[in-house]
């Protein structure tokens, strides 16, 4: 998964470097009467954690994220920003140091943010971004103890998620700088109490999902939270 994250980040960095000199150009060079619009890429990092009261203490983790976006103007002070991207969320856990304890849950998502951009100054340098983000879970990965490979990639977690997104973006001449908060709205837990499969691979015990200790059978709530920092090119 680390290799996948590194490849994802390098890909968006490469594409971003190709268009970095034209961040404001597409919007500023429109013909009179035409709709301002722009296509570009977003890359960044996030601090991700899980709201999961029945699990061990969530310490959060850093994950990469990126997207391709299309932006068009609807008003002098309002644009609509559509994105298609990917991100690696989840959390590390602490609270147990013996037995078959779980140390990390990674969640790899494809996501579709639909964000309104509200200009605070009229010239679109200082902006508020707000709207929903729809996500689809591609692959969960549950790690046991210090095992390098995930023990379970089949998890009782709902595939679809909707999150509320709120952030601030400064649009410079060559790059846009964004920081925002994303709050998952739907509970992703989907039958932990009856779920039991054998592990995928790895060297650590346990061999079955039910052998994990502390037990995950009582997990009733699982919701994503994140703070993200991104660059728009």
Overview of this protein structure:
With 233 residues, this protein is mainly beta. Helix content is 9%, strand content 51%. The protein is built from 2 helices and 8 strands. An 8-stranded antiparallel barrel has the order 1-2-3-4-5-6-7-8. A hairpin with a 5-residue loop joins strand 1 (37-51) and strand 2. The protein is elongated and about 65 Å long. The two termini are 26 Å apart.
Binned strand content? over 45%
Number of strands: 8
- Helix segment count? 2
How helix-rich are the residues, as a percent range? under 10%
Average pLDDT reading: 87
Q: Judging from the principal axes of the Cα atoms, what is the shape?
A: elongated
Which class best fits the helix and strand makeup? mainly beta
How many angstroms does the end-to-end distance come to?
Answer: 26 Å
Tags for this model:
eight-stranded antiparallel beta barrel, mainly beta, 233 residues, single chain
Brief summary of the model shown:
By secondary structure, this protein is mainly beta. 9% of the residues lie in helices and 51% in strands.
């Amino acid at each position: 998964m680390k290799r996948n994250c590194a490849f994802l980040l390098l890909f968006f960095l490469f594409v971003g470097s190709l268009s970095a000199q034209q961040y404001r150009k597409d919007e500023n060079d429109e013909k009179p009467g035409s709709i301002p619009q722009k296509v570009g890429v977003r890359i960044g990092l996030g601090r991700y954690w899980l709201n999961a009261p029945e699990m061990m203490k969530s310490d959060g983790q850093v994950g990469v994220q990126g997207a391709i976006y299309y932006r068009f103007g609807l008003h002098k002070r309002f644009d609509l920003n559509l994105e298609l991207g990917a991100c690696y969320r989840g959390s590390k856990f602490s609270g147990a140091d013996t037995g078959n304890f779980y140390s990390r849950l990674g969640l790899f998502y494809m996501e579709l943010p639909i964000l309104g951009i509200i200009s605070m100054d009229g010239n679109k340098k200082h902006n508020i971004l707000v709207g929903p983000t729809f996500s689809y879970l591609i692959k969960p990965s549950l790690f046991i103890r210090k095992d390098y490979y995930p023990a379970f990639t089949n998890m009782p977690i709902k595939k679809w998620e909707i999150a509320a997104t709120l952030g601030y973006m400064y649009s410079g001449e060559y790059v846009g700088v964004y920081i925002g908060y994303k709050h998952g709205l739907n509970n992703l837990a989907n039958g932990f109490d009856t779920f039991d499969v054998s592990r995928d691979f790895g060297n650590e015990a346990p061999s079955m999902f039910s052998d994990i200790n502390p037990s995950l059978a009582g997990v009733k709530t699982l919701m994503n939270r994140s703070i993200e920092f991104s660059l728009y090119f």
